[in-house]
């Protein structure tokens, strides 16, 4: 009997606590929402992924800059690319005015939620469908990161010259080999490594690059073993488009220079970190929040540039070649005034021939049929105009000098 | 020590096996364990943020029960975990350590998605769904029967074997996505064909389906000849042989059943929940299901409660992470881990009790 009383007491105590909380929750919901903007960010992983950390840091900074307090914004991490994303977005839509998602696979679920909650703005980074979907409150964003990659490539080229260059700055073919760990054979990745390669090639003319894919956006073990395999295969410098610490740490172990992405890896890899390019998402977050605050429409496709502060290149690491910063400043100036185009058709060939026309799959209808000409002419330069027809990259040609191993 | 009147050394505390424990005591121990675990977790959460204890508990409950959608989701995910546990249960009762739940779900899911991908738009949805169902169950069963055959015929270690099958399943999914997704993005967009129609709402089907399976499993294990054979093999293989049970046959038959139910979970994931697949589609239920099964001491009806509890905690913790803005998964893993740890460790207090020295006098009096 005594025990029964104890059980009863505990159960009643819990019931009391539960009802208290339920009551609290109920009261809060009745309070009218103030005009202030509430923003939320949905992430695929937590901040152990360099890719997501980049979004998380930028989001916090942007919210602070726009006067949002900790109670006005939230970040939800580890949301998989499935129905869970829709559930989360729909749930957030009941409280938040603008919802961002950071991973490509979140797109269909963000569109689904956007259709259901027309008064809430849904912004999706790296997506491809906003310009064809026709949902007014659904938006895509990206940045002309190929410019950042190009700059990183220039720094990589300078490092190769410093390490292996002869008196005239020439590097032997054997030593001009770069390795690249890619995530998937997808336009975003191909565009990224091509611009990186073109940057390196602008310094080391005979540079070649071997690309290997991990077939995963985030797989630390695979990224590391792939980087090691590339090093074993004679690559003298490694860069990557993948979200973990795998490749940088492999390079640090083998003392091979590494050009990083999404943020500096100098802390863990001080001896091999050359430079990193990254997209700073803060300008976009600020722009979008600002639009909601002032009742303005958000662009369907928004492409950040060096000028908007969206494309960033870190300071060169101690392992970088001397004079890297000076050279980069000159290239940045060239990119800004248009005298340098990253995908300048005179700097590369495809199957031995210069590129004169490239029809890209800009409208992602799921058919993978390319429909839009993206080779343009500006002054004397014929170039592929990347990220102009939509924010997400569409350059997906393998140019000469790059060997991509698809497994 | 000298104070003790006996010559025997009396320790301050002794561990004594409990002979019979009342149901009320079991419930009390569990409730206390959960409360202790949650309190400890909440304290840790509060340490790492500027929020208060009340925020922790409020988020925990609103995360799981905060809106109608959340309640449905809680029930749906409980049902999926319940289904996975039902897949693992017969194998575990047989002491066949099936750690391949994830892989079996994943191949079931993959088989269904393959039907949707290749037949979608070409034949009627009802035919696709029927084929999906058959394919999923068959795929799950095949994935489970391979380690079972090796265990039965060559006595290979089933834990390692089933575990490795998980990685093969993931690789297979990865390969299919590479082939199917022409843009190379590695993300298969939801397929609009072969989607199981809603009954009432889209959450209801898995709930009803897996509750029915749980009841059937309860009857199967308790009242059928097969169920009896499973428990005999689980107790002692030699006894089973002695009484004339064909152990090989029981192992293979039970694992086919186990894999088939896991495949069915995959079918629901593909056809009703996600309509797409990734290597993480099994949502690690193959392992969470082990916990639900063990905590319930292999009782199918109690697994309903443990599945609910585990799903409740994980849903609540998503909200806690949101409120506390834990963007690092390590902290939330610690917090969830502590709750589970408290619950698991309390089974010690169900089997044993602590006797302190002061009780000595009472015992002497008796």
Structure write-up:
The complex is a heterodimer of chains A (407) and B (366). Chain A is α/β, with parallel strands linked by helices and 407 residues long. Chain A folds into two domains: 39-143, Rossmann fold (3-Layer(aba) Sandwich); 145-405, Rossmann fold, CATH 3.40.50.2300. Chain A has helices spanning 2-30, 50-65, 83-93, 107-116, 130-133, 145-164, 187-201, 220-232, 246-254, 282-293, 324-337; strands spanning 39-42, 73-76, 98-101, 121-125, 138-143, 177-182, 208-213, 237-241, 258-261, 273-279, 301-304, 311-313, 349-350, 353-354, 359-360, 372-373, 375-378, 381-384, 402-405. Chain A has a seven-stranded mixed β-sheet, with helices on both faces. In chain A, strand 1 (39-42), helix 2 and strand 2 form a beta-alpha-beta unit. Residues 20-34 of chain A have low confidence and may be disordered. Chain B has 14 helices and two strands, in the order E-H-H-H-H-H-H-H-H-H-H-H-H-H-E-H. In chain B, strands 1-2 form a two-stranded antiparallel sheet. The mean pLDDT of chain B is 90. Classes of the chains: A alpha/beta (407), B mainly alpha (366). At the A-B interface, helix 1, helix 2, strand 2, helix 3 and helix 7 of A face helix 1, helix 2, helix 3 and helix 12 of B.
Main β sheet profile of chain A: 7 strands, mixed
Shape of chain B: globular
Give the helix level of chain A as a range of percent. 25-40%
Oligomer class: heterodimer
The top-level CATH class of the largest domain in chain A is Alpha Beta
Residue-averaged pLDDT of chain B, rounded? 90
Distance between the termini of chain A: 69 Å
Which strands sit side by side, in order, in the main sheet of chain A?
Answer: 12-10-9-8-6-7-19
Describe this protein with a few key phrases.
heterodimer, A: 407 residues, alpha/beta, Rossmann fold, 2 domains, 7-stranded mixed β-sheet, 6-stranded parallel β-sheet, 19 strands, 38% helix, 19% strand, B: 366 residues, mainly alpha, two-stranded antiparallel sheet, 2 strands
């Amino acid at each position: 009997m005594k025990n029964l009383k104890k059980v009863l007491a505990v159960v009643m105590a819990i019931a009391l606590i539960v009802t208290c909380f339920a009551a609290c929750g109920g009261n809060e919901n009745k309070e009218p929402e103030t005009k202030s903007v509430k923003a939320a960010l949905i992430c695929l992983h937590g901040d152990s992924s360099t890719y997501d950390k980049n979004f998380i840091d930028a989001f916090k900074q942007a919210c602070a800059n726009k006067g949002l307090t900790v109670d006005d914004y939230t970040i939800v991490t580890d949301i998989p690319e499935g129905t869970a994303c829709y559930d989360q977005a729909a749930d957030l839509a009941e409280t938040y005015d603008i919802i961002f998602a950071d991973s490509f696979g979140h797109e269909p679920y963000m569109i689904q939620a956007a259709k259901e909650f027309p008064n809430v703005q849904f912004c999706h980074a790296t997506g491809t469908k906003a310009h064809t979907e026709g949902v007014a409150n659904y938006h895509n964003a990206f940045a002309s990161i190929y410019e950042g990659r190009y700059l990183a490539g220039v720094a990589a080229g300078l490092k190769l010259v410093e390490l292996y260059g002869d008196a005239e700055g020439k590097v032997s073919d054997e030593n001009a080999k770069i390795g690249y760990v890619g995530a998937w054979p997808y336009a975003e990745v191909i565009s990224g490594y091509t611009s990186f390669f073109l940057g390196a090639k602008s310094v080391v003319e005979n540079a070649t690059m071997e690309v290997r894919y991990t077939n995963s956006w985030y797989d630390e073990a695979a990224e590391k073993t792939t980087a090691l395999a590339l090093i074993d295969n004679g690559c003298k410098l490694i860069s990557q488009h993948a979200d973990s610490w795998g490749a940088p740490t492999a390079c640090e172990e083998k003392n091979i220079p590494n050009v990083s992405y999404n943020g500096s890896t100098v802390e863990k890899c001080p001896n091999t970190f050359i430079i990193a390019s990254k997209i700073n998402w803060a300008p976009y977050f600020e722009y979008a929040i600002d639009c909601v605050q002032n009742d303005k429409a958000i662009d369907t496709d928004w492409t950040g540039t060096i000028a908007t502060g969206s494309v960033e290149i870190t300071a060169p690491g101690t392992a970088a070649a001397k004079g890297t910063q000076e050279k980069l400043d000159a290239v940045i100036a060239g990119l800004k005034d248009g005298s340098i185009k990253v995908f300048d058709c005179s700097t590369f060939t495809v199957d031995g021939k210069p590129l004169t026309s490239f029809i890209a799959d800009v409208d992602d209808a799921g058919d993978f049929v390319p429909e839009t000409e993206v080779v343009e002419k500006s002054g004397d330069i014929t170039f592929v105009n990347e990220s102009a027809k939509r924010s997400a990259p569409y350059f997906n040609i393998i140019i000469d000098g790059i060997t991509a191993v698809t497994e | 020590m000298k104070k003790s009147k006996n010559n025997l050394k009396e320790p301050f505390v002794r561990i004594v096996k409990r002979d019979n424990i009342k149901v009320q005591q079991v419930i009390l121990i569990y409730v206390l364990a959960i409360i202790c675990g949650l309190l400890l977790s909440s304290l840790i959460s509060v340490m790492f943020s500027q929020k208060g204890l009340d925020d922790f508990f409020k988020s925990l409950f609103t995360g799981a029960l905060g809106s109608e959608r959340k309640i449905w989701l809680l029930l749906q995910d409980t049902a999926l975990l319940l289904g996975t546990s039902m897949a693992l249960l017969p194998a575990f009762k047989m002491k066949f350590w099936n750690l391949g739940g994830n892989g079996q779900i994943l191949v079931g899911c993959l088989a269904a998605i393959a039907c949707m991908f290749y037949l979608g738009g070409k034949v009627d949805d009802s035919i696709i769904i029927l084929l999906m169902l058959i394919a999923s169950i068959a795929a799950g069963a095949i994935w489970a029967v391979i380690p079972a055959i090796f265990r039965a015929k060559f006595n290979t270690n089933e834990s390692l074997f089933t575990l490795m099958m998980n990685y093969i399943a993931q690789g297979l999914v990865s390969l299919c996505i590479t082939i199917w997704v022409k843009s190379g993005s590695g993300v298969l967009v939801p397929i609009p064909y072969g989607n199981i129609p809603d009954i009432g709402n889209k959450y209801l089907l898995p709930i009803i389906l897996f509750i029915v399976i749980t009841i059937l499993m309860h009857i199967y294990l308790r009242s059928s000849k097969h169920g009896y054979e499973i428990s005999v093999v689980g107790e002692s293989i030699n006894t089973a042989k002695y009484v004339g049970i064909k152990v090989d046959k029981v192992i293979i038959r039970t694992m086919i059943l186990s894999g088939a139910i896991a495949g069915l979970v995959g079918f629901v994931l593909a056809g009703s929940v996600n309509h797409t697949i990734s290597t993480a589609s099994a949502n690690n239920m193959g392992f969470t299901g082990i916990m639900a099964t063990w905590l319930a001491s292999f009782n199918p009806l109690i697994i309903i409660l443990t599945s609910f509890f585990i799903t409740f905690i994980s849903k609540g913790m998503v909200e806690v992470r949101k409120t506390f803005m834990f963007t690092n998964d390590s902290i939330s893993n610690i917090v969830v881990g502590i709750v589970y740890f408290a619950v698991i460790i309390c089974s010690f207090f169900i089997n044993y009790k602590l006797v302190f020295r002061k009780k000595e006098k009472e015992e002497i009096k008796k």
